[in-house]
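Reviewers of the previous submission asked for a worked example of the structure-prediction workflow described in the proposal, so we include one complete record here. The input consisted solely of the amino acid sequence. No template or homolog information was supplied to the procedure at any stage.
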Amino acid sequence: MVFYKIDAVSEDVEEKFELSNRRAQRNFAEELAEKSETFYRKSKGSCFAFVTNIRDDKVSFGMLMRVNGDEKNWFEKYEKLLPFKLKNIEFEEVTFRNILSTLKNACHSSYIFDDEHILDDFEINDISGYGSIVYGENIIEDALSKEAVFKIAEQNLVSGTLTPELNRIYSENSPRKFKGHPVHYIVKNDSNDSRKEIYRTLLAALYNNNRIQNKRYCFIDFDSDSRVNTKSLETHYKINVGGAIVIRYETDVDCTGEYNSRGCDVISKICEVANKYKNNVLTVICLPVASTKIKEEFLLHFGSTAFIELYEDVVFKDQAQEYLKFKAKQVKIKSDKKLTSLSDDSGKGYTATELNRIFDEWYNQKLRSTVYPEYKEAIAAKAKVKNEKPKGSAYERLQALVGLSEAKKVMDQALNFYKAQKLFADRGFTDDHPAMHMIFTGNPGTAKTTVARLFAQIMKENGLLSKGDLYEVGRADIVGQYVGQTAPLVQKAFKKAKGGVLFIDEAYSLVDERDGLYGDEAINTIVQEMENNREDMVVIFAGYPDKMEGFLNKNPGLRSRIAFHIPFEDYTSEELCDIARLIASDKGVKLSDDAMKKLENIFESVVFTEDFGNGRYVRNILEKAKMTQAGRLVSMDLSEITDEDIVTLCETDIEEPEINPNKQLQRIGFAV
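From that input alone, the workflow returned the following structure tokens.
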């Protein structure tokens, strides 16, 4: 769809309007409303034009068109119905928000009969209300030449991927009329400004070459915790037929999680709607750089749809310095040796995002030291630091997990220490980076891996780690088969995990039954590397509680380098019920009261069984219940099945697993 604002001049409109006569004004407005309705009927619902304002000899109009093209021809047909003549007619494509506002104003002034009726007729009235999607709109810049487009790609250091695509877009062999979208796009960038520059430049090139028909485009932000209203999202796609929608997936968290599949569900719903309109609406997906699994999830759900991936170039010393000089020239401040020396490492590669950070730090300091020297001694206010809450969505997800009070306490301690460093650095508070290495002890299914992953993300989002990736290894990854193999394998694992978390599951499996073998070599090398990488890395050892004690005793230096010992207790029956509710919610199903009661009885008995599986046990029961429910539903009369039946698990769907009496534990009170 396309929307226009139209301005014109009429020499006889004042006479028709009779400004001094209110009744005549109302009658004239109703006459114009009738003309708009007549025109809409004659267009067979393809185009609706209407008066929005009359002032002196100036008349403004709005126009909605289902299909792009021939806007002047349509308006000429509408103009013939008007009781006054027009000249100096000017068209301007506008956003949906703009046309929505002008429709309401026209209805208020009686220039149209009912704005809601028009929105319903165009099937675009499902964009507001509870659960609707928050969105933004913009208009592609006018008169952005081919030369300017290529120059922007070069200046923003994306020419490696964007320039080849621009060459395809501007190819003389491309059809001059819109035929559909041969490809869609993925933009990978961690800088919001750079990301916008890339997709704005891309859309301008596509519009200039009739690859998209509308100047207007829409951008929508999602993350793994978003609630996707598919009806509202589809309305956005209807509104943007002929144009583009930019999906900005604002998270660096992959679609994984022991109890949370919502992120993958969000992507699935987005792709379902985007695929439906893929020939008529261009989709541009914006992702963080470190989002390989998220990208794969999008591509998986888009199926056969082709994508072009756009990302920043990596440049080295000379080109990096030229870029920094260019940035200084943009703000009209002379570059100096200090600026260029910031990228003096001839062996290091830089992206535009990294160079922008370098430049911003230099620029801010330059403003205080040279441009405004009176602020040279100024320091940032600390009240904001004191009151700021932990950043990022990972912290909220950790807090939402069932139980795990000790893990949550440790993370709060780490974040508070980091905050204290920033608040009291000038008053003698230590500015060193304490070791954050940890041991997680607990039975299977107690969320050890999930918490490790969230810890990594929280530390990155709050500045404690530079990367925040989780790198998981076991004995087979770091213990060699021959003499001399183990130490290099350990060092390789530490190198890969630099800036993130190295998670060593079943750590006691590294220790051999006899001393002096390859496991001992692994432990000795791990201890050395832990000390060498304490400032930008966290090592987490995980395993059964009873076996981890023997592991710690294996090397005297190991225990002293571990700052936190976090027990992951078996879940109580009440906590297992909470986990069941959470899993059911994430899967989009409900548990009936009878089903919940049956689960309570199962959990009350199973918590006294050795190695019952904790959270995994709950997930397995519910996954099996979904399959049982499916069998029950397909055996019913399809005409009698309600939507509520489809999303509700009943008592009969829950199967009580057999319990091995030999594994029953005799416990009194709470488990420890």
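Residues 8 and 109 are 19 Å apart (CA to CA). We consider this example representative of the routine output the project will generate in years two and three.
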